[in-house]
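Probable membrane transporter protein, pasting as requested.
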Amino acid sequence: MDVGNIGFVIAGLVVGFIVGMTGVGGGSLMTPILLWFGINPAAAVGTDLLYAAITKSGGVLVHRKNDNIDWRITGWLALGSVPAAALTLLFLHSLHTDTAAMNAVIKNALGVVLLLTALAVLFKKQVLAFAQRHAGDSFHFSGSKLNTLTVITGAILGGMVALTSIGAGALGTVALFILYPFLATRRLVGTEIAHAVPLTLVAGLGHASMGNMDWGLLGYLLIGSLPGIYVGSHLAGRIPDGILRPCLAVMLAMIGYKLVF
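Structure tokens follow.
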């Protein structure tokens, strides 16, 4: 294993550790790191999508065993996200002959979504407090209107994830908190993870079909990330959330700003 590949293993270890400790989506951390390593944007996104699908599959099994998944909500989200991801992939396929244009679109979209993710990480508690404070009043919908909003939310997430590999974690969780303030946090998190697996799998395979995939790189990332997630999950809560989240938000915002501007 050469030095470069060791770097990918270490990157997987670090990202896995942070994800296990904070729950922040791996894509918002992994994809920028891959860009820093010199991986082109399209390959970075494609590789990270399958990386996410594989790593989150284990989480689904655990959450399913603990009855932490609302499959109805997962279904409504997927009804919007999977078709949106497919349409986004078709758009990228139309740019495939112009590699520079496709990479430019992905890079700029990545920067914007990173900035949004930074805001979601930084103001998550305030958003949750707002949603719970207004739960049950005219601010919230129910029945068919709620289902429609869930599908629309899924569609937005599907487009973002297929284009940038980011969004299913931090942004998706915040969106679900707003739509379903009465849903227990453990079920909300489990539901979002369950939704992320088919979405990232479909989007990842779509990118792979366009050649936006580095299978060797994927293997090295997994070698590092799996033990990283295990260790990080056991250290969750050791670092105060009030310190950890602002630091992550600033880091994501700086990366996003650099990519956009």
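Note for the archive: The chain has one domain: 3-260.
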